[in-house]
């Protein structure tokens, strides 16, 4: 467990960039975000929903930069759920084109900032050009040493769990896995987030208090911060509030002793 006598050089480095009031020893390693409220933000301004999504991209860029500057190890965002296909086709088409445009535009900056980007979800249902760009971005940033930036696209928590069950069943049928050896670690190793610790903190904007099929396994012990702020308005002070809220919580993972990070969970 991290304690004040074992501050790492990484923590020292990032402690200097943290806003006053945040404890550098108790920042979350991994934040997950449900970016909600783009449509309402646009409607309140008499704009089309698409303008809300465009403004949402700016909020996402700023959040990623802050999480990276403040030394977080991973940021996972919900960009498009398996249920979002039921939106009007013009909005779905717009969102796919937006993801492609933004990824193309930002790829160089992501490489320079040492961000390692991955897209999580059923990517084979996305438009072909977007799939190609995702592959390129994933490969080009795979060796980066900075923050892990996971963009959940055509992602659904239940679908992910079903796929894990299918893979484990296949391995068992093929004789590659003894079913009696399937435990939480074996299961979690098949999840699309297997490279990261589980999120310590889930932020949901626009006041909704649902998980909406997001990271159902991974969020088992996450602290939840709900804010009424609409995603395009989510800024540095909103992120700071979320982190201060997180640091005010006592995390015990069902035990009695306070634990500072998922990595130390027993
Ligand atoms: C939810 O708000 C938002 C989305 C479904 C899309 C989120 C996408 C972005 C912020 C752009 C991300 C860009 C990249 C490149 C990853 P909503 O439309 O449900 O808002 P509402 O609830 O107010 O209608």
From TrEMBL:
Its cofactor is Mg(2+). Its EC number is 2.5.1.-. It is an enzyme of class 2 (transferase). Substrate binds at residues 37-41, 49, 53, 81-83, 85, 87, 204, 210-212. GO terms for biological process: polyprenol biosynthetic process. Homodimer. HAMAP family: ISPT. PANTHER family: DEHYDRODOLICHYL DIPHOSPHATE SYNTHASE 2, DEHYDRODOLICHYL DIPHOSPHATE SYNTHASE FAMILY MEMBER. This is Isoprenyl transferase. It comes from Prochlorococcus marinus (strain MIT 9211). The gene is uppS.
